[in-house]
Amino acid sequence: MGKRQFRGAENGDGPRKRQRVVHEAPTSEVIHTSRQLRQLLAFDPDLGRSRHGLQSFKLLLDSLISRDDITDNAEKRQQHELRFTIVKEYLQSTKPIEDDESSTYLPDIMQTWSHAGQVNNENLLSAVPVVLALLLKLLSQSLELTPIGLGICRTLLQKRQQELISRSLSADKGKAFIISPTLRMLREAVCFDGGAIARLMFRARVSMLKSLARNMGIVHIGEEPEDIKKPSPRTNAVQFFLSALKYLHPEAKKELLAQRDVVTALTRDIKQDLPYLVLELLNGLRDHVLLDNKVPREAKSNLLSSTTLIKISGLYYYRQVNGDLPSIPEVAHDFLMTACTNPSCGVLRQDTGLYPREADPNAAIPSADLEELGLEAIVWMNKFKTEVPVRNFVLSNLLQNLRPWSSVKQSELITSIFKVAPELIADFFIKNKSFTFEPKLSATWIGYAAFLFTTVALPLPEYFCRGSGYAELPPPTSVVMDNILPLPLNQKALSRCLTNKSRMVSFFATRILILAVQKLDTAVRMHQDPAHSSKSHNNQALWTEAARRLVDEFCQRSPGIKEMINSYRSIPEDDILHREAASQLLRLYYEVIPQVALMAKFDVSPLLETALKRLSKHEKQKETRSEEDVESDPRDFALSLKELENLLAIAGYSPGMRWFAATEQLTLSPFTTLLKVYVEAPHGVSLAPVRRVLDFVAVEQQVVPAKDKGHPGISVLLEPLMELMASSPSSLAILWPFLDKCLTRYTTAPVKYLEMLQDLAKDAEDEVLTVSPLVAAIIEQLPFAAKAADSKSTLERLGRFLPKFLGYSAAAGESKPLLEAALAVMSESFAQGLEKSLTVPKKHPFKQAKGGKSTEAKQDTNNTTAEGKKSESGDDVVALDSEQLERVLNAPDSLAADNSALVKWQNKSVDELVDEGHAISLISLLASEHASIRKEALVNILKMAAKVQQSEYEEKEQIWLLLSELAETARVAAASQAVNAVVPLPSTVIAFACHAVNVLRDPTHSLYPKINSFLISGPFWSVDRVPLADEVLTEEPAVGDSYYAQLNWLLAYLLDGLRTSKDLELFHKKRAKGPLFERLLAVAGNPYMRTPLRMQVLRILYRATKIEGGSTTLITRFGVVSWLEELSKMKKSMSATQSQGGAGNIVSSEDEVAVYKGLLKRIWETCDKGRVEGWSKGGVEKVIV
User: Fold this and answer.
1) Three-state secondary structure along 478-522?
2) pLDDT (tens digit, 9 = 90+) per residue, 278-319?
3) Residue 917: left if φ>0, alpha if ψ -120 to 50, beta else—which one?
4) 532 and 466 in contact (C-beta within 8 Å)?
5) What does each C-alpha distance from 623 to 620, 730, 892 come to in angstroms?
6) Please, are residues 450 and 413 in contact by the beta-carbon 8 Å criterion?
7) How far is CA 256 from CA 237, 294, 303, 470, in A?
8) CB-side exposure of 294: number of CA atoms within 13 Å?
9) Sign of CA dihedral 280, 285, 288, 292
10) Does residue 29 sit in helix, strand or coil?
């Protein structure tokens, strides 16, 4: 077949290929007058001349925009003013006569643009938007020319211009020289005059947002980086989108963010964007979407999809060359932290704690099934071992794309998400099995170990859920276990870590196990909470079984106790930090899981002896160290003491511990060595645990009388030793062997020394044997000490110690005749052993020691005497002044009117109305002093009630009933007073309604049943009664042991409800069960009530003093002066009792007494003094003043 002939031009001379399009550079000229500019921009069918005029105008605008006021000299400023005058005169000359929406600004340029579209001239289609963008940018800097700029923007919204814009935006992807200028022009238009025409532009979104998603995908192509002066279509499209978000109203933002293709394209190529664009994008989305409370939650959810969050998380690996800008990874981290942990941002959904999505924690299960099957009767209890359904599926998808072992920021993000959404912990580790905890000392393993450490350190959700109390059924054991010990921390991996040669690997595993056991202890305590056995729950057996199963599961997942013991024994002595951690882990096992710890038959005596030997060695080095030697770190001694504390606790659980038996390693017995550590410990070291062990062992071995008999216990021995330590430290070195021998011999044969005391009592004619048997052991050993080689120095030291010891014993209430007889026997040994007589008082040396300080002050900090200097009586406590009292007791008025609530609620969903407080703000307006505001509020409450009833909100019936009954109460109150306006309701009614909303939105709240019963009791409320006051104060709580929680709720709403004199009348009005003030004072008089609740009552009294006549009423009708006086006395007596027992907190007690006195002073200053003086005949003034 032959070749076909060309059918082109005649003679076949025409070109066979498409001619190449050549873009010639436009010509230009310098503009000197506005007339010249007008002639250049006049419409001309010749496209070359039109382009010449536009290019000349562009260069003029460039020179005006790119000027610098700081570096320009006077001549350049003059030239700039001349050029600006040219542009100004040109714009004034082309301004239409009638300025309306149909007027066309810059008609010649618009006609040129239209003609370019008709003839398809791409050069002019690009040049016109360039000129218009520069012109709008220039006009935005001039307030005088702003109307003209607005006119140009409105011209762009005309039909012909919209068609041209739509055509340019949908041009081929390769024609970026047309797309980019058009997007820049639109951005300048939407930003002009603070977004004045943004709303109008959004109405024309069909053309203005044409191909926006596609244009966001036209990125810069080439090996060279993108030029900032010539941004790609994607850069211009993203900037235009962000500008629109900034100036559009919330509903328009919602519709814009609903375009999924645009939202997806927004972050698709974010890793390739320039740093400044990434910063603009993240900051713009954060400021104008996430943190904009007016943007609906669903709109934010449309933006922050899984795809968007994953793309943004990729910025953790963004390589940034320019160091002048903020770090992109840090900005992205802050953005993700805000988006993923703030519920208002639309991503985080409220979960139910450790109850998965398909689990009903309050499901009704027949009691017969529960008794027969136990936990197996719950169908979902064993369902979530391989998969955990979650509500936060978006966050779940994001977490699977993060690598916590490679970045500290990513680890912080994940743990922050775990903290606000604990349901994701189990889900994350079930799905993410790409990394195991097999020990391998590398940077990756250390990063993963640190992440697991912070995860285990997260607290368990309160009540295991989001409610205000425990659910009926316990959470799934597997989910709780995954929160305590995540799946990578299995028995095999942890055992290998403990036995690893690397000390760091073993230390990491030890610290993680410590947190896990502490967390297990918390979980078991929550399972054993008495609230499970209340009338409403009564599932204590079920929760107990769940706790037992949880402990069994933990034992199967954690390493054996023998491996932990072997790991502890293998730690070098110089690794003090690791030894302290390992000893703490063993102690926790003995305290939390004793059934496992005691199976190992662990003999703690050698380790305890080693620890005591180390401390003794430290003391010897301290004594022999010269002043020139470098002192050791006191933190090392504190850690050693902490290790000793842990070993002592283990020894307390060990039945075979020998406290009074010396060994080859220790010259003194463990008990005496502890005494030595306690007395000679450096300043600032906490010794409370050592003191508790000494007390326990001394009472257990009957070295001293028990504390329940009024005896201070081991203090009678510690006080004289500490006084000797302060006055003559060298004396103690000789005393320790003698004292250890006495203690050892007594504990070996206690009956012998008790008989010696009985014989001594017969000689002293005293039948009361309240003397420490240690006295008899000292009497027996003194003759041997007098015959020793160093008897002189020993007796001299004993001569300083024994009078103090006997004196403190007498001051502690021991038998004085017996002590006198013992002192007489001791004096004989001193007379035989010393060549010169030793001055030892023979008669009542006890009086000298009665004022001795107790060693209890040393329980927290050694050698600290500041606590002893405080007043024990509280008589010198100074009352708080008015400013301090206001700072403590003044509470803000929560019913303060916010009139904007009348309109804010209308565009909110029902969930937002209830959860974000818009309903409460609207209800509060019923307390407004203006009748018109109250009327508007009532109308809006009825509208809100109708909106709630038509919604799908879970608690819509209760919220609707509350709002309707409140409105009906306001109507009935107005009708009873025969007025047309909405009368002010009592503040107690309004405050009750506000606080009841928060209860009704949470069905697990302890007051939920009572408030529902109150709502169904009648169509309106009595304004003469205080709602639910009788029910809370006198009736048993409906849910568990929640009396104080309900009382706290009642006091909070009563405080908000006391604002006016009419409210005060409700508080002191006579009722069947007594006035409300009288009942509140009786409740607060409970000596065991917690301080925060009592402070709430004091705040109510303080609020009453702000009302006219309130202070006078409190004094004359309720005896508040006597009540406050009795409270002060009660607090002082409790403080004294606690200080004697060593567990008091005198500082807080003094603060409370100061508050009482300050409130008394406030009541006196604000009362009617004449009436009160006449009523009390001057008695109140004497008490207060």
Assistant:
1) HHHHHHHCCCCCCHHHHHHHHCCCCHHHHHHHHHHHHHHHHHHHH
2) 999 999 999 999 999 999 999 999 999 999 999 999 999 998
3) left
4) no
5) 5, 10, 60
6) no
7) 14, 15, 10, 43
8) 14
9) negative
10) coil
Give the pLDDT score at 686: 63
Q: Which residue has the higher pLDDT, 1103 or 654?
A: 1103
Instruction: Specify the pLDDT at position 933.
Output: 87
Place of tokens 């104060």: 1033
Q: What is the mean pLDDT of residues 488-509?
A: 91
Q: Under a CB-based contact definition with an 8 Å cutoff, are residues 507 and 499 in contact?
A: no
Total Cβ atoms within 10 A of residue 762: 11
Cα separation of 1124 and 885, whole Å?
15
Q: Alpha-carbon dihedral of residues 622, 627, 633, 635, nearest 10 degrees?
A: 60
Treating both helix axes as pointing N-terminal to C-terminal, what angle do 122-139 and 146-156 enclose, rounded to 10 degrees? 150
Contact (Cβ atoms closer than 8 angstroms) between residue 538 and residue 470:
no
pLDDT score at 633: 65
CA dihedral 1095, 1069, 1053, 1153 (to 10 degrees): 0
Q: What is the pTM of this model?
A: 0.63
704 within 8 A of 698, measured Cβ to Cβ: yes
Cα separation, 934 vs 931, whole angstroms = 5
Extract the tokens encoding 137: 């940018």
Report the alpha-carbon distance of residue 436 to residue 492 in Å, rounded.
11
The pLDDT of residue 765 is 57
Q: Where are the beta strands (DSSP E) in 332-452?
A: none
Helical spans, DSSP H, in 44-141: 47-65, 74-93, 107-119, 122-139
Distance CA 84, CA 103 (A): 24
Give the SS3 label for residue 804: helix
CB 776 within 8 A of CB 728: no
What string of DSSP letters covers 596-653? HHGGG----HHHHHHHHHHHHHHHHHHHH--TTSPPPPHHHHHHHHHHHHHHHHHHHH
Residue reference for tokens 């809006």: 940
Q: Burial, 78: exposed, middle or buried (Cβ in 10 Å; 0-12, 13-18, 19+)?
A: exposed
For tokens 């930003």, the residue is 191
**Tens-place pLDDT, residues 922-938:** 998 888 888 888 888 89
3-state helix, strand, coil in the chain (%, to 5): 65, 0, 35
C-alpha–C-alpha distance, residues 637 and 640, integer Å: 5
Where residue 541 falls among pLDDT bands split at 50, 70, 90?
confident
pLDDT at 333 over 90: yes
DSSP character string of 181-206? HHHHHHHHHHHTTTTTTHHHHHHTHH
Helix (DSSP H) and strand (DSSP E) numbers for the chain: 58, 0
Residue 83 phi, psi (nearest 5): -65, -40
